[in-house]
Specification:
The chain is mainly α. It has one domain. Helix content is 74%, strand content 0%.
Length: 181
């Protein structure tokens, strides 16, 4: 899976083929075909592994933010990096455009399970974690797909979407805290 992930990050989703991964790990195409059954199954295995890694890391970070041990900005950065530099946005989009939407089930399930777990720690009055997650994930995905060109076209810094995501996250916390005295 590390070889597949490296190909994804280096060259994009279309480079993640059985032949290319086999070449990276010193196996034959037939060997990987036997193991995965198809390129589609390889992609599903890759997104499943990526989802587990991403959700585990971000889930732990959210708990650290709630404990006052980590700046919320780090959660935004991790999420944007996972979809951008980490390749999750490109892979998810490519799967959707290829008609392989079932392959997204592992990441959607992993996010759903994390949100359910984190919802148990929601404070009364907090914006629901589901809303915060939807906002953050869609902003990170959009940024991964066309954030830099859109920001450039609008004369904004490339980091602007991250700033807006952090503002939205902090605003939801401020709204939950109520008016200050």
């Amino acid at each position: 899976m590390e070889a597949a992930r490296a190909l994804l990050v280096e060259s994009g989703p279309s480079a993640v083929t059985l032949k290319a991964v086999a070449g990276r790990v010193g196996r034959t195409h037939a060997n990987l075909l036997h193991h995965f059954g198809s390129a589609e199954a390889l992609h599903t295995a890759l997104i499943t592994r990526m989802a587990a890694d991403i959700v585990g890391t971000i889930g732990a970070a959210v708990l650290r933010v709630r404990a006052g041990e980590l700046d919320p900005r780090e959660v935004v950065e991790m999420t944007f990096d996972a979809f951008g530099k980490g390749g999750a946005g490109a892979l998810a989009s490519w799967m959707i455009l290829s008609g392989n939407t079932d392959a997204l089930d592992p990441i959607l399930t992993a996010i759903h399970d994390l949100v359910d777990e984190l919802a148990e720690g929601d404070m009364p009055g907090d914006q629901p974690i589901q809303d915060q997650t939807l906002t953050l994930v869609l902003m990170a995905l959009g940024d991964a797909l066309m954030g830099a060109p859109m920001a450039r076209a609008l004369g904004l810094p490339a980091s602007r979407a991250r700033e807006l995501a952090l503002d939205a996250l902090l605003a939801s916390k401020d709204a939950a805290a109520g008016p200050s005295a």
